Amino acid sequence: MKIAAVFIAFLFQTTLKAQTMNTKENQNATSIFPKGEKLSNEWFTGNAFLKPLVAKDKNNDFALGSVTFEPGARTIWHTHPKGQVLIVTEGEGFYQEKGKPAQALKRGDVVNIPENTKHWHGAAPNSTFVHIAITNYKGSGNVLWLKPVTDEEYNGAVKK
Amino acid sequence: MKIAAVFIAFLFQTTLKAQTMNTKENQNATSIFPKGEKLSNEWFTGNAFLKPLVAKDKNNDFALGSVTFEPGARTIWHTHPKGQVLIVTEGEGFYQEKGKPAQALKRGDVVNIPENTKHWHGAAPNSTFVHIAITNYKGSGNVLWLKPVTDEEYNGAVKK
Q: Which of A37, A120, B102, B123 is the most exposed place for a label (fewest CB within 10 A)?
């Protein structure tokens, strides 16, 4: 009986190990794109990264890229002259327009950000957050950077 | 001993069941968006589905959606008057411009399709294939549908 129990326990442990490895592989597999290069702390608070995908060209009047925010990282307040579309591909984060409650975002959510609307987006305090951004151009510009989202603003927005 | 063995076997089975459920959940978790509605076989061969994400509006001069192709499913030959960007989010498939070899596509690949260029895209024979499509408008149109990709054309393209 001891031998049988030990053998079955061994199988059981092996199963658990295999399960853990699968989970890890699946977690890595959730990132569609490489993280890319770190974005300047002039415009992003904490560690955020950009992987450019398509630059504005004769057909596409937008810049396309994937942005990865480490937990707690976020943009500063900003506006887009012709709006921006966010497509959340991984993790949990927030989008907030000035004077409104923050919206919680998760994988599969899409935000159609209006033009000239002061807002920020970024990760939840305890989650990496990745979104694709389609940023429309108006002439040669597609963003106007404003002031940082303070810790007080961020903490107040995400705790509600 | 019998009781102990049965109990351990029960635990083991429970573990396997849980594992199977996890695997299933993880597979589902690889799909960012719901499949959406089946696309017409007038324009798609086999089973393809569209989940619309953002319609053309005053800021976005494109339609945004997620397209899911079952194995072997594909578009018919077509052109876009102002191009289209594909972002592969799941599985394996192909993109082929008329007269050129097909390009194999996998998760994370991006295709910037030029204007007025005859092409098709779709799944590999043994893989589901999911891409986001950003389809630019020229006036009120964004696609011109042509003739089906025959089985001979498809098989010849994907086996190389």
A: A37
